[in-house]
Amino acid sequence: MVYNKTKKVIEKQQARKRKILTVAREILAKEETGSISIKTIAKKAGIATGTFYLYFKDKEALIDTIIKEFYDELLEIIKKERTQYTNGFDKLAASMEACIRTFMKKKHLAKILLDLSPQSSAVVNTKFTDIENDLIRLTKIDLDELMEQRLIPIQDTRVSATAFVGAFREVILSWINGDEPADMDMACKTLINFNMRGLGKN
């Protein structure tokens, strides 16, 4: 006999999954990924430990979902900020400013998103690589457009995009890890201008 879920049951399950994700995000805001246990997440979510596995295969699957949601959220913020501009340089600057604001507001989630390290799980490192490649691809699109408009020198835009994303990530990660600048506005302008000069913008 096939059990057809009612709308109420589906809504309850969706609410429970959202609760698990919310709790996990709250814990990740204070703890490193390695110190988080499914038992702790389940307890704070008000469910049995076994119930957790009805929604996520394991802790890595949960973290993978959190990272994906955070990245999707970041892309939406970037997209919204970029709609205000038509100039390629302004779009790039808007993208960087949106990233900085979002990353510094949600430092622990940002660290998971940005930090490729041996201590991270294979799932997290794979997700990191996928996201970094996507950011490089999106940056390359902007650079190709700027080069076609002859606003930057002729260059290998794939290499430039990789360096652009890499330098940006390293600086933001250093801020998140405790070296946050005293004057954040000045630091942001400096980072943005540094990356722009690297592309050949006067």
Task: Describe the protein in words.
Helix 5 runs antiparallel to helix 7 (122-148) and helix 8 (157-176) runs antiparallel to helix 9. The mean pLDDT is 86. The longest helix has 27 residues, at 122-148. The protein is elongated. It is an all-alpha fold and 202 residues long. It is built from 9 helices and no strands. It comes from Desulfallas thermosapovorans DSM 6562.
List the helices and strands and how they pair.
Blueprint: H1 7-28, H2 38-45, H3 49-52, H4 59-82, H5 88-105, H6 107-114, H7 122-148, H8 157-176, H9 184-199
Helix pairs in contact: 1-2, 4-5, 4-6, 4-7, 5-6, 5-7, 5-8, 6-8, 7-8, 8-9
Point out poorly predicted stretches: none
Oligomerization category of the chains in this entry:
single chain
Major sheet summary line = none
The CATH topology of the largest domain = Tetracycline Repressor, domain 2
What percentage of residues falls in helices of 4 or more residues? over 70%
- Please, what is the CATH homologous superfamily of the largest domain? Tetracycline Repressor, domain 2
Please tell me how large the radius of gyration is: 20 Å
CATH architecture of the largest domain: Orthogonal Bundle
Number of helices: 9
In whole angstroms, the N-to-C terminal distance is 70 Å
Order of helices and strands: HHHHHHHHH
**Spatial shape:** elongated
Structural class: mainly alpha
Give the amount of beta strand, in percent. under 5%
DSSP strand tally: 0
> Can you give the mean pLDDT?
86
CATH class of the largest domain: Mainly Alpha
